[in-house]
Amino acid sequence: MYAFDFERPSTVADAVAALSAEDAQALSGGQTLIPTLKQRLASPSKLVSLGGIAELQGITSDGDAVTIGAGTTHAAVAADGSIPALSALAGNIGDPAVRNRGTIGGSLANNDPAACYPSAALGLGATIVTNAREIVADDFFQGLFTTALDEGEIITAVRFPKPQAANYQKFEQPASRFALVGVFVAKGADGVRVAVTGASEDGVFRWSEAEAALGSNFSAGALDGMAPPADGMISDLHGSAAYRANLVGVMTRRAVAAAG
């Protein structure tokens, strides 16, 4: 590690003010940032911890929506159960140490191309609430490790509509437990959404062809023989682009079958 200033504000307003300093970096659960610092891949002059901000904690179920504070841990989301598919997703992130430190807001802000939460936010049509505005999930994710957040903007909460049916299926990379391919399928009043993580070079995306097929027939059979194009899929030592494209089809059919 190296020398840096550390600040732990107790309000969102104080955190925003602290982040206005040159080269300041927000710290939520730290499950990605701390290893990045250790490897000297980032060197902020100040870390602003969001862990002491009470207003970023907690889960509220109100009518047709569930609002989760950005500082809420994966373990807390897993234990909640307001949206069973989301809780099941959170309960299979990393290991117990990661789940008890990592936060939903930190994961979405980081937007790792193989992270699980981006597929849930996109698949459920969530709204990301910040200190300055509200951003629908379709506009929030903008490529690998890239989001619509402005400099110094903080996610304060995520609002998820409750689906009629939903499921998440993840084909894990066994060493990291990140998704080699993960698919979140959700059926709601506005139709069917299918969000895919881990597969594309551009990060999380919606598989529109599958959504169209499932919109008229919400069954795994509606997707028989379907897979997205391999062009643009990640190809690495864990699997080729064609392998990942095929996995998207397989995991989507499993998610639909499990969602019922």
From TrEMBL:
Matching SMART domains: CO_deh_flav_C
Gene3D superfamilies for the chain: 3.30.465.10, CO dehydrogenase flavoprotein, C-terminal domain (3.30.390.50), Uridine Diphospho-n-acetylenolpyruvylglucosamine Reductase, domain 2 (3.30.43.10)
Tree of life domain: Bacteria
GO molecular function: FAD binding; oxidoreductase activity
Entry keyword set: FAD, Flavoprotein, Oxidoreductase
Xref: PROSITE patterns: FAD_PCMH
Name this polypeptide is given: Xanthine dehydrogenase family protein subunit M
